[in-house]
Amino acid sequence: MTTGNDITVLPQLLGLRNDLEKTIIGQPHLVDRLLIALLADGHLLVEGPPGLAKTRAIKALAQGLHASFQRIQFTPDMLPSDLTGSDVYRPENASFVFQEGPLFHQIILADEINRAPAKTQAALLEAMAEQQISVGKHTYPLPDLFLVMATQNPLEHEGTYPLPEAQLDRFMLHVQVDYPDLETTRRIMALARQEARSQRIEDFSQPALSPALIFAARQETLSLHLNPHIEAWMAALVHATHASEKSSKLAQWIRWGASPRAALALERGARARAWLQGRDYVSPEDVQQLLPDVLRHRLVLDYQALAEGITAADCIHELLQVIPAP
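Given the sequence above, the corresponding structure tokens read:
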């Protein structure tokens, strides 16, 4: 198949994916969404029970990119300065020196983000939205390659602070992970034994990817062909979540729809998925596969719909019925 991808870029990204799938067994969806977020310059929120390799996945990605990594455990007593850093007074010369916080790394794991209060969450929001942080009168840029993966534990809600809609909208994707099947669990056990014997995680088969290569891959995804009918369809899917455009069911279910940022995320994500599939064009399947992860955290459902057990997945299914693929 003829594609527009540079032979020096795509094979290395596919090699990285293969290496990730070898060490992150049973979570191909998570691995795929991590790479899509990386290529689309977005951030992702991952939700699932503990023990499903969420931390392992993002650490392995940082290893494959040879990028600086920082895991931040969010707690109710965390302050914004614990993320951003702060000005430290130096008595020897009566001056203040800025001490960088953990957000100045390239790959960030915000573990159990909903355990931190709103003020601390807001500090992360600026970093994700503007790729910078503000301390006092000064603003400091973050690394050019900057990816945040935040996690939430759906099993516990005591002592948590639900993320506001404005912050949820800053996450490009909301990825849900679940338990593996029996055979996959056995493979995980075998891999754990192998790593325990060698006392290290399995090495990657290829050299670490440079940030320059990632930036080049991002430019290639933007050059993929996007049929005007598919582009119009993506815009229509997002626009149909608004009150003035809903079908009768969606009008009853959705209280607040998705912003244009969802359309941008859907396009960038579909382009990244198509590129990883080795195609030089975006297909309707790319859009359909990304739509749940793009919309599930951006739809605010009506109270009556919640009482009836309606979920965001039901709304997305109805959207695809009302506005079929071109």
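The radius of gyration is 21 Å. Try to locate this feature in the token string yourself.
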